[in-house]
Amino acid sequence: MGTINNISFAAISAFAAVAFVATRVSVIKSFRSLLTASISINKDYWFSEIQQEITSVSSNTVDEDWSTWSKPTIYRPADNLRLPFTNIADNTEGIAAFSDLNVPANCRVWLDIGGGRSDSCKKFMESRHKELSFIVMDPFGRSIEHNKIAQNLVELNGGADVVSSMSVLNVIPDQKNRLLHCAIVHTALKSGGIAYFKVWAGSWPKRGSSLEGM
Q1: Dihedral, 208, 182, 110, 95 alpha carbons, nearest 10
Q2: CATH code of the domain containing 87
Q3: Domain span at residue 66?
Q4: Quick one: pLDDT at residue 21?
Q5: Which of 1, 56, 99, 207 has the fewest Cβ atoms nearer than 10 Å?
């Protein structure tokens, strides 16, 4: 009986694993279809269809000293909270957002979309990866001229090897513009490339609930 139970458990586990993979593939395909079906990207200028500014554009410009940076910002919970919440090491913004990411082998062009006005992340990454060209585009933090030049550089490479989006989606309040942002990331990405998304989950006690104001 024990053997039968073990076999049954193994079979159920295998079925659950297959079902999980199938569901994940289905979700990815559905998301990809949603992007291509409902979002149209202007090939001349990727940001031309953006209708609403993010609500905290200044927060995406963290001007840090890249040569002395050592660790992420630590946010401590307020003293009046009833539960013993832990400190938050914010690795979703500024240099910290990139410090723990893997740079793929043979990566030459990295595009950061929504990176604000500062070049501290660019200098940090390029100082540690000498063959890397780190390009920043931002529809609100950079000029149209800058963004078009950056877009042209990415297109000349056949797309970016890596595209990153750091603490951008969490400050876009409506679904349409979130999808548009994701579609731009997809458009900029080279076939077989890697996209990194990070979002700020909020502070305690609302952290992770999406209830904290943007």
Answers
A1: -20
A2: 3.40.50
A3: 46-198
A4: 45
A5: 1
